Task: inverse folding
């Protein structure tokens, strides 16, 4: 027996492996024609597996096969068009179509609209018994965007005469019956969800666009709709209704936390998220179809469709007549296998291990590139004060949160879900339902309600540092700080002096970073013998105020910083500040107040060896006998638990101001070198 040939068609990280058992079949798949003698049932099963038919190139070949379309015998529909009763309405609807799928492609949009108009008018001209309905053009647009005008005409004609024929009757009576089946089917799937909707008095009318257009009206991403069409074209014509019921129940946890009222529930279903787990929902839909077949559903609900309804006559006669014969008359199977890097078939273990290991390593590298998104997303939710809305420690729907924040719910969902993977927010039902829209507080997000943490996050992920990251290539070339170079500044300090609002954010951020550490500083240092303590570069003065609070023996505590910072501090509420507290303007490179103790928190690390030595020498000229200098800073490599954090802070410092993290020995060498 001849060994099969293989074609490996890649789409991103998805693989669709076609196992073909005939040289001629390989030629036809790669060429203009596609062999008709295929295993249709195998294709239908494939539509229910992960990724379905994967991409438009394969769909263009497979969709017509599922509808028994012979591409060699499609009539020229251009010649069939005549004026009909719905000509004007078709023109109006088509004129409004395809915006979502052709953004920025006006020529393509105009071309496809003209093609769609011809297709619909030809079908309605050829079959005057068919009545146009609004939404019909949306089904046609999906077929057209995935295939071409000729194939789309043939497929839409076939669907109009069979799968969706109930929608094209003179009245909507059969469509009303279909909608009446939604809640009875839901009650058989999950009575609790059904009861909630029933109590809300919402009607199944909210599903009408789902069912009539096969969800073409409800998603902005063509890939999502095409994935559903893979399944709908492969299964019972009631599958869009069954999928709708499964989808409703998918939102169960989101629904049950809502107010049980018509307005709230109807509004909830008015838009659908783009990131639904479609493969999972399709499998559940097929299971429901098998558990409650359409005939059984009609019996249980006591709602009977017309005997001639396509919902009752499926599978159609032309389906039964489809053969699996090759040119030689011998039945030859067409096996379709799909795999990902983690689930491979027909491969040996060695190649699987190599490719899987390669893919995992590649993903690790790609995840590193996503660091900018992590920073910016954290900045956005912090700036929105989103965590405050979760302070009641209860689960909340992302739609509810988005409404309160006046932001887009789909984008907020994506941001919160991504942040939840790194511990910021708790995403409910992540194991069984990856697209749950319910979130609550986590240990990390809870910290965002702390003003010091908020300020630190807003500074570290703010515009100054975030936008400045693009300049690090300049630092790599020259070794000079370049955060502000894009704006014409040689150092970040010059940028701050010229931008008071950014300086204020920096001061708040540094206060936020320092405040949680103050108890540790006070535990390490003994201030009981000092009368005057100066905190150099003390920003908002939090450290010196805490030192005064804990040490009543100190006569004076001075917050020493540059003019711009001290001026900013005048805006702070100082009504309850200790009377021993004062602020002095100056530069620690020139002169500092006389004192017997100096503290510096996260100051020395901002400067190179020369500048750091200069600071220490300035202190040396003013310090009293037996005085002391406390440097509170991170020591590189001292604690391996925080080594990663410190090494990235080191890059941050070098890039922004040519500062650096130092080892314990480097600090010792620095202090001993100062005169």
Result:
């Amino acid at each position: 027996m001849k060994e099969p040939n293989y074609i490996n068609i890649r789409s991103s990280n998805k693989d669709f492996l076609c196992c073909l058992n005939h040289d001629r079949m390989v030629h036809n798949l790669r060429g203009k024609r596609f062999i008709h003698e295929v295993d249709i049932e195998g294709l239908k099963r494939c539509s229910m597996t992960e990724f379905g038919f994967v991409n438009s190139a394969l769909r263009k070949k497979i969709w017509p096969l599922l509808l028994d379309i012979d591409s060699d015998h499609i009539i020229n529909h251009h010649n069939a068009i005549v004026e009909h009763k719905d000509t004007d309405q078709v023109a109006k609807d088509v004129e409004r179509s395809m915006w979502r799928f052709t953004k920025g492609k006006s020529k393509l949009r105009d071309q496809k609209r003209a093609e769609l108009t011809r297709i619909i008018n030809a079908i309605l001209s050829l079959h005057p018994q068919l009545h146009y309905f609004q939404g019909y053009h949306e089904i046609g647009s999906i077929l057209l965007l995935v295939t071409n005008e000729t194939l789309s005409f043939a497929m839409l004609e076939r669907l109009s005469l069979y799968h969706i024929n109930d929608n094209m009757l003179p009245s909507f009576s059969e469509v009303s019956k279909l909608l009446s089946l939604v809640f009875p089917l839901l009650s058989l799937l999950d009575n609790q969800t059904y009861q909630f909707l029933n109590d809300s008095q919402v009607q199944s009318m909210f599903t009408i666009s789902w069912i009539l257009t096969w969800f073409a009206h409800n998603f902005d991403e063509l890939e999502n709709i095409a994935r559903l069409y893979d399944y709908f074209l492969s299964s019972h014509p009631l599958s869009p209704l069954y999928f709708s019921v499964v989808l409703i129940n998918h939102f169960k946890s989101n629904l049950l936390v809502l107010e049980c009222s018509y307005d709230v529930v109807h509004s909830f279903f008015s838009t659908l998220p783009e990131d639904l787990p479609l493969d999972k929902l399709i499998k559940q839909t097929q299971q429901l179809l098998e558990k409650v077949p359409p005939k059984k559903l009609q019996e249980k609900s006591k709602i009977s469709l017309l005997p001639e309804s396509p919902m009752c006559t499926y599978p159609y006669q032309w389906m039964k007549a489809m053969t699996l014969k090759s040119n030689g008359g011998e039945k030859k199977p067409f096996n379709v296998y799909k795999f990902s890097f983690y689930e491979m078939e027909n491969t040996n273990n060695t190649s699987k291990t190599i490719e899987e290991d390669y893919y995992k390593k590649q993903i690790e590298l790609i995840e590193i590139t996503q660091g900018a998104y992590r920073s910016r997303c954290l900045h956005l939710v912090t700036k929105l004060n989103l965590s405050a809305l979760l302070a009641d420690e209860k689960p909340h729907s992302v739609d509810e949160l988005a409404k309160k924040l006046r932001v887009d719910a789909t984008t907020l969902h994506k941001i919160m879900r991504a942040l939840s993977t790194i511990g910021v927010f708790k995403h409910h039902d992540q194991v069984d339902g990856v697209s749950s829209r319910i979130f609550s507080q986590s240990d990390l997000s809870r910290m965002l309600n702390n003003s010091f943490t908020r300020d630190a996050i807003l500074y570290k992920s703010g515009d100054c540092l975030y936008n400045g990251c693009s300049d690090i290539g300049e630092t790599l070339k020259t070794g000079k700080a370049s955060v502000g170079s894009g704006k014409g500044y040689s150092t970040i300090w010059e940028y701050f002096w010229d931008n008071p609002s950014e300086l204020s954010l920096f001061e708040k951020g540094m206060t936020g970073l320092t405040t949680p550490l103050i108890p540790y500083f006070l535990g390490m240092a003994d201030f009981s013998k000092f009368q005057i303590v100066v905190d150099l570069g003390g920003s908002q003065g939090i450290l010196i105020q805490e030192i005064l609070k804990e040490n009543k023996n100190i006569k004076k505590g001075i917050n020493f910083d540059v003019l711009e910072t001290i001026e900013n501090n005048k805006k702070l509420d100082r009504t309850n500040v200790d009377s021993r507290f004062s602020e002095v303007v100056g530069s620690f490179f020139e002169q500092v107040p006389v004192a017997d103790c100096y503290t510096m928190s996260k100051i020395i690390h901002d400067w190179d060896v020369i500048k750091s030595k200069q600071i220490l020498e300035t202190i040396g000229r003013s310090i009293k006998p037996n005085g002391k200098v406390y440097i509170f800073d991170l020591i590189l490599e001292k604690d391996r638990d925080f080594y990663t954090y410190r090494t990235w802070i080191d890059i941050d410092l070098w890039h922004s101001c040519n500062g650096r993290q130092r080892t314990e020995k480097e600090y010792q060498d620095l202090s001993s070198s100062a005169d």
Summary: The first strand starts at residue 5 and ends at 11. Confidence is low (pLDDT under 50) at residues 1-36, 323-352, 430-434.
